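Worked Example 4.2. Read the sequence first, then its structure tokens.
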Amino acid sequence: MPHKIYINGRFLTQPITGVQRYGHEIVSAFDQLLVNGKIDPQKYQIILLTASKNLLFNPAYQKIEKRTIGRFGGHLWEQLELPKYCADGLLFCPGNTAPISSLNSEQKVVVTIHDLSYQYFPEAYSLPFRMWYHFVIPKIFARADAVITVSNSEKSSLIKLFPEAQHKIFSVQNGGLPTKFLNKASNSYAGIEKKSILYVGALNRRKNIEGVLKAFELVYQKKDLQLTIAGASGKSFQKFYQKESSRCRDKIKFLGQINDPDELVALYQKSLCLLFPSFYEASPLPPIEAMACGCPVIASNIPSLRERCNDAALYCDPYDVHTIAEAILTLVENSTLHKELIEKGYQQAAKYNWQNCVGETFRIIENVFRI
């Protein structure tokens, strides 16, 4: 009988942010490993379990079996129903949480912890959310057989907080643009004049969206540019934006959350640059996606972004809006640098793919089976 690997498919019931994108991409990459014979179906059976309630996505796979189970949704489904259907195999949870009963049992459990932003930027999360994460995250590090995180810098942070678990914390970088979109990523807008700065991500304080807006206002005093913002907003951002008296509001376009990769690729291609001055990240997707599309990147000078972008980005101090504005103006006024970052970006983006990510993830899961 093959070993059973169950995947917690709760991400199929959630709108797509970075964590959910990881879930979608890693399951698709697992499916390709089965199709290509790189995972032996005689040894391993992979089953994706998801709830029927609030199901937003229903992808088709060639080799992975997808089962819709239970009557509940959200936390109730994950905590009460999921464990009943996966007890005879290993459970892989790609989205930060896991069933407490599975962690407390003899079942083998592998969990991906993307980051601990709820600790560092609590104002971006509701009180119930923070309380739940403060409860479940320590249990994951205490009980899970392996914990995967998405960068070496994040691994170092996790080891400082959970030193007793350092032997089972592994770093696996995220992939980049989905493989099926790479053939569309060459910049077909290369010949047009680009006047729009692009921001992609959640609209909250951790992502430094306020710094994005303030820096753009400084830039607009010298250059007639536009700012395009793609991402979902929270209440704290709405309050901030409503009280700001910006002189360039008509030059700022809010697109909301974008789930369609085709639309996202076109945005990257049409933009002058991606502005990504986050205070804290683990292994973000937008910088590598932008690079794959020929869109230069301005990023925060923080360890995780240095690790992910290397020398293919122009760096700024996220705590100083003047340095963010200066980086934008430098890129606008220095065409040689602009072209250089495009070329370096293509090279850097080529290093990241979901097949490598899932290959390393599968090796960790294989080792857990051997324990």
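Now turn to a second chain, presented in exactly the same format:
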Amino acid sequence: MRKFVTTTAIAAVALLALSGCSSRADDGGAGGAEAAGFAADSVIGVALPSKTSENWVLAGGLFEDGLKEAGFKGDVQYAGASTTVKDQQDQISAMLTKGAKVVIIGAADGGQLATQAKAAHDAGAVVIAYDRLILNTEYVDYYVAYDNFKVGELQGQALIDGMKAKKAEGPYNIELFSGSSDDANSAVFFDGAMSILTPLIESGDLVVTSGQTDIKQTATAGWKAENAQSRMDSLLTSNGAAELHGVLSPNDTLARAILTSVKAAGKALPVVTGQDSEAESVKSIMADEQYSTINKDTRVLVKQAIAMAQTLQKGDKPEVNDNESYDNGKKVVPAYLLDPVIVTKENAADAYANDPKLSPLTK
């Protein structure tokens, strides 16, 4: 959903800014709570998708603890795995019934929450899209996330760097994977990566062996590992004896599934990218299997979202640092973007030095 597909101009941002004046030109449908402030012990709703990755599980606990520490009544809910969208729609409606002043939404499907966003606005609540943009509604007030286009750029460059480290000269045979089509971030990640890879594909330095370069061909429904593994199985069969040098994977769960497929086929491991710094993938990187991941510290992102709620509680406007990039189809959503970090075996110890869970894995 990004307005541009060239190198991002977002500078590294200061973390955890608790308040400040927004640089928005207009309020674009912001709820009444933003203008008036609200009681310090108000309900803050947090609607998260199903527990498809370690980071979503971590985020829920961090929100529960962080909102309590901030003095709010936190209402943190996960959508179920089978009826994810309807669950989330119903949960948001219930949060508003409880009087939530801010609803922080990690969308299960960003294209199916317009009704709930409008209901929040009508109830005087502020909607903050968390990590995933909410689409096609003027009633999403803020977006807080890591710079997802840059994530894609880092993945694309890591794929190239990793292949060159193993084989000095191309051409290189690659395959492309993207995330679930119901996640707005999938296209942003893919576009960022393709901004790096497309020129090399056009020059012949990179060869997509299957010819599947369209995001509809590369999509992985539900971000499910079994879907990625099944597609990789089919690609390896179709590619025959052709050596595969690299695979663009949008996250760690899919990266491990791709590697499982390659191992089962008895083929040499290609360079495989990832995202999310999942513990099993950090182990895989240190074992020289998965090549890279992206560190998007969930602790920092959750703190920033809670800081925005605290600023709103005081009746002030949260700080944003991007007023141009994230067009959801109805408005450009004011965003606060954090800077992602590429992680390979070479810099893993430094990247996770302050993470008590991941740091021991890099020793």
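Notes for the reader: The domain at 32-147+297-340 is CATH 3.40.50.2300 (Rossmann fold). The longest strand covers residues 43-48.
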